[in-house]
Amino acid sequence: MKNIKDYNLDSLKEEFIKIGEKPFRAEQVFKWIYEAKVTDFDEMTNLSLDLREKLKNIYTMCNFKILKKQESSDGTKKYLFDVLDGNAIETVLMSYHHGYSLCVSSQIGCKMGCKFCASTGINFIRNLTSGEIVEQILAVERDNNIRISNIVFMGIGEPLNNYTNVVNAIRIINNPKGLNIGARHISISTSGLVPGIYRLAEENIQCTLSISLHATTNEQRSKMMPVNNAFPIEELLKACKDYIEKTNRRISFEYALAKDNNDNLEDAKRLCKLLKGMICHINLIPINKIENGEFTKSSNENIMRFRDYLNEHGIVATIRRELGSDIDAACGQLRRKNL
Ligand code: SAH
Hints:
The chain is α/β, with parallel strands linked by helices. It folds into 2 domains: 2-60, Orthogonal Bundle (DNA polymerase, domain 1), CATH 1.10.150; 65-327, Alpha-Beta Barrel (TIM Barrel). It is built from 11 helices and 14 strands. It has a 10-stranded mixed β-sheet with strand order 3-4-5-6-9-10-11-12-13-14. Strands 1-2 form a two-stranded parallel sheet. A two-stranded antiparallel ribbon has the order 7-8. Helix 1 (9-18) crosses helix 2 (23-34), helix 6 runs parallel beside helix 9 and helix 10 (265-275) packs parallel to helix 11. The radius of gyration is 21 Å and the shape is globular. The two termini are 23 Å apart. It binds S-adenosyl-L-homocysteine. The site of S-adenosyl-L-homocysteine has 18 residues, from strand 10 and strand 12.
């Protein structure tokens, strides 16, 4: 069966024409799913009984089942969802003063192999479909009776490695008749897949791009992130400059600070030099040590010194608040758990 949530509004209209239905019916169905947030075709009361039966025979609604839910002392909630084929993925809900933010997964497993990340070391299974990406949002909204206002593609997987499905999911999330979350409230985080960055710059979506930079020399970065061997820092930053130029959007660089690895003032100095003149923001993440990982968290003193150096040298840097670390829901801690 096809997943009805894999279609954006335009492709659903085309699909409905193929099955002999009028395009406005597609719009009605789309609104039932994303505005009214129903979970069953039978709830779509402005469709005839015949049409509902027909749709039920062709499409599934792909409502995820919650396998496990954990709540942190800071209110962060981690969900383990059954994606309905025997696989499971994690999604994290964070609550901020300005609303709810959801960290979604884009793949079951990850191919990038970053040395400090818990999603490494589990086999890559497959890409998530667009419908499975948006269902993470719908399922968490249903469970909490809330409306989520921010989406970050920072869960399991490399979003630019599942480019088509991620961009299609963003079209559903962003559509005013869909989840209606503004593009500026959607962030894609990438380990640095350069061709994907060039491609995204042409999409005409105003989402925020976050780059996982984490190091200032190729030697250092390649040790942490194998992707750097294919796309070294100079090429990555060139793509970032192109993205800024074409979209007029500020880029956010993520920099996970690991003790005695990338956290001294020489690193900060090199970082300033690398990013000089770019419209950007740096998110400093105290690295979370993973099981058997070689990287450990920098001291608070070093983290603050690093931030202050950047701020004093004209680069806006903030330290990311650590949420959900007591339930393994913080940055880099998500895994695909066995059922
Ligand atoms: N594949 C994408 C998105 C997933 S990771 C990417 O690489 O950007 C989201 C962010 O968490 C990335 O910046 C990633 O580098 C960071 N991260 C991964 N493991 C971490 C860890 N153990 N501690 C802190 N940040 C981590």
